[in-house]
Amino acid sequence: MIVDDLKVINYRNYEQAHLKFHPTLNIFIGDNAQGKTNLLEAIYVCSAGKSFRTKKDQELIKIDKDQSYIQVKLRKINGDVNIEVRLNSDKKKGIKVNKIHLLKISELLGNLNVVLFSPEDLKLVKEGPSERRKFMDREISQISNKYYYNLSQYNKILQHRNKLLKHSKGKKIDLEVWDEQLASAGAEIIFYRRNFTKKISLLSKLMHRKITESKETLKIIYDPNIKVKEDDEVSSIKQKILKKLQKNVDVDTYRGLTTVGPHRDDMKIIINDLDVKTYGSQGQQRTAVLSLKLAELELIKGEVGEYPVLLLDDVMSELDLSRQSYLINNLKNVQTFITTTMMDNIKELSSENRSIFTISKGQIY
Ligand SMILES: Nc1ncnc2c1ncn2[C@@H]1O[C@H](COP(=O)(O)OP(=O)(O)OP(=O)(O)O)[C@@H](O)[C@H]1O
Ligand SMILES: [Mg+2]
To answer: Bigger pLDDT: 107 or 316?
Structure first.
């Protein structure tokens, strides 16, 4: 898919901007704090219905204004798509796809697929399991509405179960109805995560091998809180969750929260048999994330039939020259948006292969 056109009004530090994009490579160049990432973020908002930097929509609205508008025009295999997002200070945001008002954000997912790589993504290898769960959730939600639905259900039921446990003050309560629902949604989550990690592991292994010129082997392993077999169906996963919930009921009651389930899952990222989180060098950690992100491009292509767009925020300065040129030279089939403060590595590209936008104080030149 290709983003042809982006319009923003009263968004972040932009009063108004209208950009027409190159189908292959678009470069936002400028000093710090000029509005480069803001543009990637605007595209992202049209994909996910929210920012990747903040949960608060208010921060996206230009200071002193009370409404913000973002529009993306998209070319896909099956036709053109027009996505509009209106953010309001005083009421809920409004999202339209092809002029039709959406009732739920989940209806937006899958219209514009993006893969984002930003310095923040290093958290994926460096920090705790919740970052890796977020990664799985975001990526699987993009390709499966069913997953997104089950995840929201699971979180709602989990919250409720935890509240009941907390208020029970250590006394036994009847959780049967909740456990049943929690296990149903949880089983779907585990099923999807297991299949996703298997696919992403294969693809990222290939990517990593290319980027490191076969020096390293990358492996991604799903590390679920409730152990499941490779061929377990949803129904047997559900039984396993129920069993574990029942087994842990005393602990849960005592602690006032749910101690087992996919909200405790993790994903291991391993290079040459060592966990990258503990043993990886900075460069290895970065490259592992890069391989994962490039693998996602292929995974989404396989699932939805066309490549997503790739948003690379400040990534160039973090990679060595050979990895930078690998990136630029191997993304010919994927529309890519890059932010950078330096011109160095882009100079070698001929001008018909890309568009350059110079960004200064919320103005585009
Ligand atoms: N709601 C807002 N209203 C007005 N200005 C804002 C708003 N939100 C952010 N800004 C401004 O946007 C600028 C940051 O934009 P952005 O994050 O896109 O910078 P950048 O060009 O990516 O910089 P860097 O190279 O440091 O990453 C800051 O100057 C910030 O003050
Ligand atoms: Mg930035």
So the answer is: 107
User: Which residue has its alpha carbon closest to ligand 1 atom 7?
Assistant: 12
pTM (predicted TM-score):
0.90
CA of 64 to the centre of ligand 2 (A): 22
Are both 100 and 160 inside the same structural domain?
no
User: Looking at residue 348, what is its pLDDT?
Assistant: 62
pLDDT of 262 higher than 70? yes
Please write the tens of the pLDDT for every residue from 121-130: 999 999 999 9
pLDDT tens for 153-204 read 999 999 999 999 999 988 889 999 999 999 999 999 999 999 999 999 999 9
Distance 364 CA to ligand 1 centre (A): 14
Q: Are 206 and 302 in contact (CB under 8 A)?
A: no
**Same domain (yes/no): 108, 203:** no
What domain range includes position 314? Answer: 1-113+308-365
The pLDDT, as a whole number, for residue 126 is 93
Residues 200 and 170 in one domain: yes
Contact present, 296 and 115 (Cβ < 8 Å): yes
Do 106 and 168 belong to one domain?
no
Task: Report how far ligand 1's centroid is from the alpha carbon of 66 (Å).
Answer: 18
- What is the spatial distance between Cα 44 and Cα 306, in angstroms, rounded to a whole number? 18
Looking at the structure, tell me whether residues 240 and 265 fall in a common domain: yes
In angstroms, the CA 61 to CA 63 distance is 6
Question: What are the tokens at 132?
Answer: 């890796």
Is 291 found in the same domain as 239?
A: yes
pLDDT over 90 for what percent of the chain? 84
Query: What is the structure's pLDDT at 346?
Result: 65
Q: Are residues 145 and 294 in the same domain?
A: yes
Contact 15 CB / ligand 1 (< 6 Å): no
Q: Is the CB of 41 under 6 A from ligand 1?
A: no
The total of structural domains in the chain comes to 2
* CB of residue 51 inside a 6 A radius of ligand 1: no
pLDDT given for residue 276 in this prediction: 94
pLDDT at 316: 79
Same domain, 271 and 316: no
Bridging pattern class, strands 100-101 and 94-97: antiparallel
3-state secondary structure 62-93: CCCCCEEEEEEEEEECCEEEEEEEEEECCCCC
Instruction: Using DSSP, state whether 251 is helix, strand or coil.
Output: helix
